[in-house]
Amino acid sequence: MIKQVLKPSEYNNYFARYIDKIADETELFTGLENDKKMVIDFFSSIPEEKLTYRYQPQKWNSKELLQHIIDTERIFMYRLLRIARKDTTALAGFDQDIYIKPSEASAKSIEELLHEFTITRQYSINLISSISDENLKNVGTASNSSISARACAFILLGHSIWHIEIIKERYL
User: Fold this and answer.
1) Distance CA 94, CA 72 (A)
2) 138: Cβ–Cβ under 8 A, 6 or more apart, which residues?
3) Residue 27 forms beta bridges with which residues?
4) Which stretch of DSSP H or E encloses residue 141?
């Protein structure tokens, strides 16, 4: 399945900023593998002293941003599973800001965070590969908006790019 098959009606316009970062010809599984490598290579290359740097006191540091990428993937895979299984229960949104402090990301080593990311991504790939293309087209409701199961997966690819671009621009 390629990104080009997604229709704007399959996700809230808010997520267009992530979806638009992905080339139309991006195939989902290849994209997930390439994104995994990009995230690992990028965060591995950040100098140790920059991992906990904040460009403003209230902003997240690079470790916290990686934790946010991981947590978002977990939430979106939960959404994907429920929607793909035709669960019509509206799914609540989440306040990303309250997740960071209890995650204790700053106290984790970059190796621990990258391992956590790798395991999470492998789970995502396994989950998505267990679902038919037909069921990935299913649409449900999350955060008071329509979203398809496959949009949940593609959003993750652009989400990583989005945050890496911010780190490059403001942290390094």
Assistant:
1) 9
2) 83, 84, 86, 148, 149
3) 2
4) strand 139-142
Question: In this predicted model, what pLDDT tens digit does every residue of 120-140 receive, in sequence order?
Answer: 999 999 999 999 999 999 999
Structural domains in the chain (count): 1
Tell me if 92 sits within 8 A of 84, measured CB to CB: no
Q: Which CATH number covers residue 83?
A: 1.20.120.450
Burial group, residue 159, by CB count within 10 angstroms (0-12, 13-18, 19+): buried
Question: Phi and psi dihedrals of 8, rounded to 5?
Answer: -55, -25
Residues across the chain: 172
Quick check: 114 and 69 in contact, CB under 8 A?
A: no
State which residues form the domain around 108: 3-170
CB 143 within 8 A of CB 91: yes
